[in-house]
Amino acid sequence: MSSRFLPRTFYRVVNCSENIKGRGCPIQLSPKSLNRYQFPRAMANVSGRERKLLTMDNLNPCVKSMEYVLSGPLVTRAAAIEKELEQGAKKPFKEVINAVTGDRQAMGQPPITFTRQVLALVSYPELIKYSNFPDDVKERATFLLTGCSGGSTGSYSEASGVEIVRRRVAEFIEERDGFSSNWQDIILCAGASTGIKAVLKLLDCETSGLKTGVMVPIPHYPLFPAVIAEFNNMQQMNYYLDESNGWAISIKELKRALNDTKGTCKPRALVVVNPGNPTGQVLTKNTIREIINFAYEEGLFLIADEVHQQNIYDNNSEFHSFKKVLMEMGLPYSKMELASFMSSSKGYMGECGMRGGYAEVINLQSGVKAMYLKSISANLCSTVLGQIAMDCVVKPPEPGGSSYKLFVREKNSILKMLTENAKIAVNAFNSIEGMSCNAVQGAVYAFPQIYLPSNAIETAKQKQMHPDEYYASQLLENAGISIVPGSGFGQKDGTYHFRTTILLPSAKLKAMLQILRKFHEDFLKKQQ
Amino acid sequence: MSSRFLPRTFYRVVNCSENIKGRGCPIQLSPKSLNRYQFPRAMANVSGRERKLLTMDNLNPCVKSMEYVLSGPLVTRAAAIEKELEQGAKKPFKEVINAVTGDRQAMGQPPITFTRQVLALVSYPELIKYSNFPDDVKERATFLLTGCSGGSTGSYSEASGVEIVRRRVAEFIEERDGFSSNWQDIILCAGASTGIKAVLKLLDCETSGLKTGVMVPIPHYPLFPAVIAEFNNMQQMNYYLDESNGWAISIKELKRALNDTKGTCKPRALVVVNPGNPTGQVLTKNTIREIINFAYEEGLFLIADEVHQQNIYDNNSEFHSFKKVLMEMGLPYSKMELASFMSSSKGYMGECGMRGGYAEVINLQSGVKAMYLKSISANLCSTVLGQIAMDCVVKPPEPGGSSYKLFVREKNSILKMLTENAKIAVNAFNSIEGMSCNAVQGAVYAFPQIYLPSNAIETAKQKQMHPDEYYASQLLENAGISIVPGSGFGQKDGTYHFRTTILLPSAKLKAMLQILRKFHEDFLKKQQ
């Protein structure tokens, strides 16, 4: 954030023992109480100034081991460099280009007007009466408010979400798949992350002395290992996506992963991310069918991260939900337990800050379902405005409605740009010496492989960094480009990658790719 | 929600195997694949229709044991009765009066205009340019947008929240306490609940073979036992509030609780709720000082739930934050680790659905602080609009601003009503035979004790219900009043209570108390 917007007081040096207003000065203690305060039992051998109750030794070990690359040191460093630039520091670049997150609006892209107008009206319903917003916006806002307790977005919803929004999500799924969806299987959550966590939590259980094994793709969206690490009785089982085959999932590799961990844990769940993050592949219906059959044979609970389902660029690719394929396969597959996740953050809507999302969890045993609902209830509910953002994602303006034309124009222009960006990025990476990149069929990232010369790898080792982490830090420090090293997502040993978002406006993306090409060439030269 | 707003499709009987659009019919399988699909290994001895992977036997045991009364069977039953009434069912009452939650707006009370206007403008910034909202609303919205990535509330904030909002929270605390607050100690969270969970999680650790003991008041806000139960290595230690002394906390009782659990766990944290929920007491500065000294002597991490700090009704009571008293006491106390929590839900603002809240966590060891920030980062961030609601709580309109007069009028009328309601409720309960209630000095609940005759207790036992749960269910079924039985908050054995909110509009509260009086008298008669 630009510092010029901060009142001067923001810069006051903060000192916790300082009494800034001369009020609340230390209490006067009687000799007796002084005595009591000054020689407390637990103080016998320690200095009060130094004593800490919570230390690295008695901190929750799961918190210690958990890693999350998207908030790692490089991201922090990029923010620091931005501030240095604001304060006039001289760098070989004028701005930091942030290509880290799948955050459309952070990249300066405008939101969908309809969603924001609805949010404005449900936040301040006076606007429904006294403003000239489009009719369908007013109707939507009015309808949604009828679903909120006391007719207000300021009241709690049920823990599982506002009923009419859950029903609309179910209708969206029915429209998408051609199979019915029970609105009571829909749980609205604050972005997909909290939904995924709540479902994995149910599986965090030691069975016959073994931890719960959860199969996770490599490379993967870092949320999964982060969440798994936070649970005491859960173990990650890696299966590798086939880079030489467009990051495909092969049953052979799934079986390999299962066999290699035999005896070390009890495999209970299989995580699939489709479209892929960071890899951008879109699974074929046949692959999904094989995965479902594998999960069925091996008795694995299916967890499908499908948050990028509305971002498909490749003409030959189509999104097929696991739910749909499960239903198409009929019994016994159609009775399998499946949790699939969607978000308001990742589609063309790109409303990350609103924290809208849903989980569709099907075929749960009724008792387990009750426990699941109970376990989310202590959080009260997800943000009601986020739920309303989700409503706008699953029920966009309809033909004939006064917002329809604008919505279609906005949606198409975003998807057109992303389709172009996907090609621009992939072509650029494949045209740079020592880089190669699979097609980005969907999602909002490219994940190129980079060739790193042996002395670069050596230098990295000396600095105790992953080689691609070293590469990323050099790219940041020398060219001002902030991307995420592949090591944060997992990759085959001896291969190096990075993830970049393709959400930047096309012109900026092209500029970034130019800078990156130059940097990479210089980097390779330097290493010779 | 009234059913008349639902499209007919909402009523379609949902059947997961039904193919509602004739599309996506089951795939045709070749004999070979049929063979493969029909005799999967794991299927040898089980029927696919019946098989469940996630059962009550292999479900996370912490999820099973966790209880949360505010979403318990009575709350579910109340909602069901509401629907029955909507559908024309005949009952001895015309409506269900919901006195369960501390949710101002669910009770039909209007929000603070300023907050909602700001939310509308940051949701749809066009309104800043082209509308005649008050200047200070426009200025606030403009300022807050400068703190959001890409100038939009639709982008992620840092996991700890939007920096300028965190800085404003720190200024609010400085104003409140007269001691400085470091904005980097402020974590914005989705309501206090998620903040409390994130801090307790740090303490979820087995030390020298013992679980972490967390001291919790009885009666308590049910979130605490619910969260503690979810952690594998945490044990609840109960200390009782003194009902005969206005629900006061005595050091003698804290010591008793500590001694009684010696050897069963490692006491590491002390939870204090001030003002009290469900008990409504406000701690004196002297009591807080004694509690701090106790925590210091016993080496307990202080956790202060202070979400009701802006709801004080008793002229002789004043809110003192633990942070302030800690600082007043000076060294070594001013270096103690403390986490205190605030929310946008519970004050006169009452914006529950927005999910705004903050944690101020002071004096953490730097390494631990880093781990804390890392551990919340995988959730990306709390809702940005909720953070903005929090900004309006800590920085309401200022004198001279165009929204100031209206804000003061709205705020005062709410607090005036709550002050009256607190008296109305307490007086009513104390005037009903077989009921007694301590003064409600703060917060938004009354927690009367009810006398239950022995045969009522007997009947309850036969129905395998807590006696006050039985009383609450009778009150709901026969009088349509929905309250929460005391057993859900914990209480001394042999005593019975219930919690009612005082947030109902005064007229409705009076009506409810009339009905309740009549029900109670009849109930006692019936039992004789």
TrEMBL record, chains A, B:
It comes from the Eukaryota. Residues 150-514 form the Aminotransferase class I/classII large domain. Its cofactor is pyridoxal 5'-phosphate. Its EC number is 2.6.1.2. It is an enzyme of class 2 (transferase). InterPro entries: ALAT1/2-like, Aminotransferase_I/II_large, PyrdxlP-dep_Trfase, PyrdxlP-dep_Trfase_major, PyrdxlP-dep_Trfase_small. The keyword Transferase applies. It holds the Pfam family Aminotran_1_2. Pathway: Amino-acid degradation; L-alanine degradation via transaminase pathway; pyruvate from L-alanine: step 1/1. GO terms for molecular function: L-alanine:2-oxoglutarate aminotransferase activity; pyridoxal phosphate binding. Keywords: Aminotransferase, Pyridoxal phosphate, Transferase. It catalyses: L-alanine + 2-oxoglutarate = pyruvate + L-glutamate. Belongs to the class-I pyridoxal-phosphate-dependent aminotransferase family. Alanine aminotransferase subfamily. Homodimer. This is alanine transaminase.
